């Protein structure tokens, strides 16, 4: 039996003789099934066509794969006193990446912003024998259950002193971000989306299908972040980094967003 990987979203499914009949994540309105239909890759087939990347991204070690696969996100390796945390995940993992991360001190935990970035999280967790922290609201989206997947509840969870998971909701009900107090940084995935104009960020229910969030959900994100000041914001892809005034950027972006969706046609 093999594990199967969805080519569109990059999610790894449990071992089976044949691929799943459908990808639940892609069939949701926040993702999509391509015109040609769902395409599945055997794990070994996927690995043969890709390689790992390990490089600095805005002062944090980033981990990705080339050529770009599925949604194309990269993970971030966050050091802490209790051991490294892998923020977000990718579909790729090989012995070379395991060795590189081990040389950096290995992993004490994995935390993932939302289901589109679960990737091969179980492969990563098993390689480093560490837990994966996911908000309980996203339990239904874990396509490959495993004892290393742990669900937390509530609005915040401290992974280590100064490293806090914050449930923001928005894009997903249990969408979470990671606040890194020592760096005054917010690691946001695309719960808070970095856009080409780095003076602003944005928010969305479905990015590929352009379905906006209601203003109440955006305002809830701002309230969730208010107790956690930050300068830098790290998004989900290589080079998506805001280096200063991050808290102010989020506040004024939310104000602009609410004006734009409640008073269309006005200068936002």
Task: Summarize the helices and strands and which ones pair or pack.
Layout: E1 2-6, E2 12-16, H1 24-27, E3 40-42, H2 43-48, E4 51-57, E5 60-66, E6 75-78, E7 85-87, H3 95-103, E8 109-111, H4 121-128, E9 132-135, E10 149-152, E11 156-160, E12 163-167, E13 176-180, E14 185-189, E15 193-194, E16 201-202, H5 215-225, E17 232-235, E18 241-242, H6 246-262
Parallel strand pairs: 7-8, 8-9, 9-10, 14-17
Antiparallel strand pairs: 1-2, 1-3, 4-5, 5-6, 6-7, 11-12, 12-13, 13-14, 15-16, 17-18
Helix pairs in contact: 5-6
- Terminal CA distance: 53 Å
Sequence stretches where pLDDT stays below 50 over 5 or more residues: none
Fraction in helix: 10-25%
Largest sheet: 7 strands, mixed
Shape: globular
Given helix and strand content, the structural type is alpha+beta
- What's the CATH H-level homologous superfamily? Ribonuclease Z/Hydroxyacylglutathione hydrolase-like
Beta-strand fraction estimate: 25-35%
In DSSP terms, counting alpha (H) and pi (I) runs of 4 or more, how many helices? 6
What count of domains describes the coordinates? 1
CATH class: Alpha Beta
Radius of gyration: 18 Å
Q: Indicate the mean pLDDT.
A: 96
Strand order of the largest sheet: 4-5-6-7-8-9-10
Total count of strands:
18
Helix and strand string, N-terminal first?
A: EEHEHEEEEHEHEEEEEEEEHEEH
